[in-house]
Amino acid sequence: GSIGPNGTYEKDVIYKIADKLAALINREPGMRAVMIREGDYFIPLRKRIEKARERQADMFISIHADAFKDPRVHGSSVYVLSKKGASSEYARWLAARENASDLIGGVSLEDKDDVLASVLLDLSQTASLEESIEVAEEILGGLREIGKLHKSRVEAAGFAVLKAPDIPSILVETAYLSNPAEEKKLRNPDQQLKIAASIMKGVCNYFRTNAPEGTQVATRRHVIAKGDTLSGIAQFYQVKLQHLRDLNDLKSDLVQAGQVLDIPASG
């Protein structure tokens, strides 16, 4: 990885951020973090994708601290897979489909003809890329709240770790380690926690409306407290008021303290 002007190793600060993010995720009901690695050793880029798929991941997040020859360059960035990178990966999976079982919701491509396999892969990659962009925008918004952005929009690149055809995948460049001021911030445990918390906020915002079916996140519940209103609850969870009424079979908007409401997975 990168090395800062004062000798800070990227792996040292990034692992701490990832560890803090994992702790935040594991505190959230219905979520569980799986670290691709637990120590200082190299895992090939393709193997990282394979590990994520083996664990049936619903999201893949790669965290880095960038470096550049100009030490003045600074700010955070969030990347998704470029369409060109997606196209090359699409061709690779299609060519090797006999070894690419369970790529699309448990559907093997091995026994499919070229046309059907091509359509299935295209649909899977398109949906995955759209979801990647959505979560990337959420996380970029969280990073914007704690510091400067290098780019105000989600970037696209052909990073190998983003090429899982069936998992929303993003790469977060937390800051430029080559910038002395950002290097100093990255070494600060408080800043590391802020970065982890901003990523977590984006993850939660994404899953608030994109929870996988059948998960605990998708079946959220809210216990009515004194002063709660149905419209206020709908606004808090970013769901439509009518959907909230329908799911809970409510005939009016009157609610009582202690009453438990199911929260729709999406608006």
Describe what this molecule looks like in 3D.
The protein has 267 residues and is an alpha/beta fold. 44% of the residues lie in helices and 12% in strands. It has helices spanning 10-27, 45-54, 83-95, 114-144, 180-187, 189-210, 230-237, 241-247, and strands spanning 60-66, 77-81, 155-157, 169-176, 220-223, 260-263. The strands form two sheets. It has a four-stranded mixed beta sheet with strand order 1-4-2-3. A two-stranded antiparallel sheet has the order 5-6. Helix 3 runs antiparallel to helix 4 (114-144) and helix 4 (114-144) packs across helix 6 (189-210). The longest helix is centred in the middle third of the chain and has 31 residues, at 114-144. The model has no long low-confidence stretch (mean pLDDT 83).
How is this structure best summarized?
This protein has 267 residues and is α/β, with parallel strands linked by helices. The protein is built from 8 helices and 6 strands; from the N terminus they run H-H-E-E-H-H-E-E-H-H-E-H-H-E.
* Helicity, as a percent range: 40-55%
Question: What is the structural class?
Answer: alpha/beta
As a percent range, the share of strand residues is: 5-15%
Q: Care to count the β-strands?
A: 6
Features:
four-stranded mixed beta sheet; 12% strand; 267 residues; globular; alpha/beta; two-stranded antiparallel sheet; single chain
Task: Itemize the secondary structure elements and their pairings.
Blueprint: H1 10-27, H2 45-54, E1 60-66, E2 77-81, H3 83-95, H4 114-144, E3 155-157, E4 169-176, H5 180-187, H6 189-210, E5 220-223, H7 230-237, H8 241-247, E6 260-263
